[in-house]
Amino acid sequence: MNKSNIILIGFMGVGKGTIARSLVKNSSMFAIDTDDLIESMENQKIKKIFEVNGEAYFRTLEKKCALWLENNIKENTIISTGGGFYKQDNIKQIGKIIYLQSSFDGIINRIKNSENAQKKLKKRPLLQNIEEAKKLFDIRVSEYEAIADITVNVENQNIIDITNEILKNI
Ligand SMILES: Nc1ncnc2c1ncn2[C@@H]1O[C@H](COP(=O)(O)OP(=O)(O)O)[C@@H](O)[C@H]1O
Ligand SMILES: O=C(O)C1=C[C@@H](OP(=O)(O)O)[C@@H](O)[C@H](O)C1
């Protein structure tokens, strides 16, 4: 395993935070999450930031976060990201990019069948309208693929198998 940072990208709800936590448990790395960094920067939940200041403002916070990561987080860190963070210009300078891949229905069905499904849907502003979310998914899929160093299929895969697959590839 080399020591560069690992960045998990992929659509909302695909499992970036979940897999980051599992990687921490099964390796010597630590994890940070860009949405958590942004919430602590603003002392406000993502949902509220979208409501009060809008998406464009949220994207400026992602940019700030990306620059901070590039300048301060040098190695051995797993970085889970929000679904739109992959657009940051400097993402390649932050670390090795792992794309967690699933179909749209795979993601939505898993959330819908989970405990606290409504809470998980509600906290994601861009998942409120399923048709709009599907359009966003269709646009992003090829962009995620293009930027990824490694692609890992997570659809119908359990957390441990995904974790091992990633650890094997880094
Ligand atoms: N491989 C998996 N198997 C089963 N449930 C999963 C898996 N990955 C994620 N989940 C569940 O899907 C939901 C969304 O996962 P999360 O890690 O919050 O996604 P993201 O960080 O990409 O938005 C959570 O309820 C999580 O428990
Ligand atoms: O896809 C997106 O543009 C977003 C995904 C969210 O994170 P998750 O991917 O963790 O849901 C969060 O950053 C924000 O609501 C915007």
UniProtKB/TrEMBL annotation:
What broad class describes the main subcellular location of this protein? cytoplasm
Q: In which pathway does it act?
A: Metabolic intermediate biosynthesis; chorismate biosynthesis; chorismate from D-erythrose 4-phosphate and phosphoenolpyruvate: step 5/7
Instruction: Tell me where it resides.
Output: Cytoplasm
Quickly give the catalysed reaction: shikimate + ATP = 3-phosphoshikimate + ADP + H(+)
Report a single Gene Ontology molecular function: shikimate kinase activity
- Could you name the Gene Ontology cellular component terms for this entry? cytosol
Lineage top rank: taxon: Bacteria
Q: Where does substrate bind?
A: 35, 59, 83, 140
Keyword flag Ion transport = no
BP terms from Gene Ontology: amino acid biosynthetic process; aromatic amino acid family biosynthetic process; chorismate biosynthetic process
Task: Give UniProt keywords alphabetically.
Answer: Amino-acid biosynthesis, Aromatic amino acid biosynthesis, ATP-binding, Cytoplasm, Kinase, Magnesium, Metal-binding, Nucleotide-binding, Transferase
InterPro entries, per database record: P-loop_NTPase, Shikimate/glucono_kinase, Shikimate_kinase/TSH1
Q: What class of enzyme is it?
A: transferase
Q: Which cofactor does it need?
A: Mg(2+)
Q: Where are the transmembrane segments?
A: none
Which EC numbers does the record give? 2.7.1.71
Q: Write down how the cofactor binds this protein.
A: Binds 1 Mg(2+) ion per subunit.
Q: Which family does it belong to?
A: Belongs to the shikimate kinase family.
Subunit-structure text: Monomer.
Chain's role? Catalyzes the specific phosphorylation of the 3-hydroxyl group of shikimic acid using ATP as a cosubstrate.
* Protein name per its UniProtKB record: Shikimate kinase
Which gene is transcribed and translated to give this protein?
Answer: aroK
